[in-house]
Amino acid sequence: MLSIVRGFIAVIDAINYRIGRIVMYGIFVLMGILLWSSVSKTFFLPSLWTLEMAQFAMVAYYILGGPYSIQMGSNVRMDLLYGGWSLLRKAWFDLLTVLFLMFYLAVLLFGALSSTAYSLGYWGGAPLSFFAGLLTGAEEVGRMEQSSSAWRPYLWPIKAIMITGIFLMLLQCLSELLKDVLRLKGETV
């Protein structure tokens, strides 16, 4: 059983590490979009897509980089008391707080699934059955949601990225939870 837990931790950490290292360079994509926005506003006609595309790039950068941030321990903490605690006490506290985070992420994931189903033209109350129906062919995509801006992009791609990022964050939290359990049992992580 211990080898399965260690294998799960290794796989999730490897996936989120690789995705995080790739997404880290998304800041250059964002900079390029904002640079083009400045150049086009100064010398040409302003581009309609730059502001909203910069927002989408920032969401992708933030949401897909979150699991990597948790894995590297670079998330924000109140270090007033935590920094002076022993590793065992930190593990107990992290075990408790990661459970709250996982509950929050599960609620957020359900909301993202509902929002994505809505953006694909589903107005019902069971988004999971809608996605299952899409896979089996029982459901089909309806009138897709578009932004209300002048550019009017479809919103489902960024919402799908949000689902992916929240799911990866949930898996990383589970990995961190299992690491804390191993630490409490006296195992090396």
TrEMBL record:
GO cellular component assignments: plasma membrane
GO molecular function: transmembrane transporter activity
Record-annotated membrane-spanning stretches: 22-39, 51-70, 91-113, 154-174
Keywords: Cell inner membrane, Cell membrane, Membrane, Transmembrane, Transmembrane helix, Transport
Function: Part of the tripartite ATP-independent periplasmic (TRAP) transport system.
Family: Belongs to the TRAP transporter small permease family.
The name this protein goes by in its record: TRAP transporter small permease protein
